[in-house]
Amino acid sequence: QVQLVESGGGLVQPGGSLGLSCAASGSIRSINTMGWYRQVPGKQRELVALIDRSGTLSYADSVKGRFTISRDNAKNTVYLQMNGLKPEDTAVYYCYAVVVALGSPYGMNYWGKGTLVTVSS
Questions:
Q1: CB distance 45 to 57 below 8 Å
Q2: Which residues contact 121 (CB under 8 A, 6 or more apart)?
Q3: Of 94, 89, 88, whose CA–CA distance to 114 is shortest?
Q4: Is residue 2 within 8 Å of 24, Cβ to Cβ?
């Protein structure tokens, strides 16, 4: 059993900053890719940022230069530092990880429950 738990969401004013964390726990052998997606009501869930276990990064154009993704492999944790927040960043942010469970020869997709980020004055 693998679980992803996000933390750090909340209310912030435009131009402010917020940091998100996501810790994976359970019967984990390794984690390949970790990242963040976000979703607004009425819109599709969209990629925010990804980081593989070697540190290769991928960002959505809309957040490039403002958000930074990082990970701590020893802690099975991924982070998202969000700076220069805009109202359009308001969304539920979901942690994502490709996890190779103990006893499994391949990775599977896992999702957190989501944490709400609201950017408003």
A1: no
A2: 13, 14
A3: 94
A4: yes
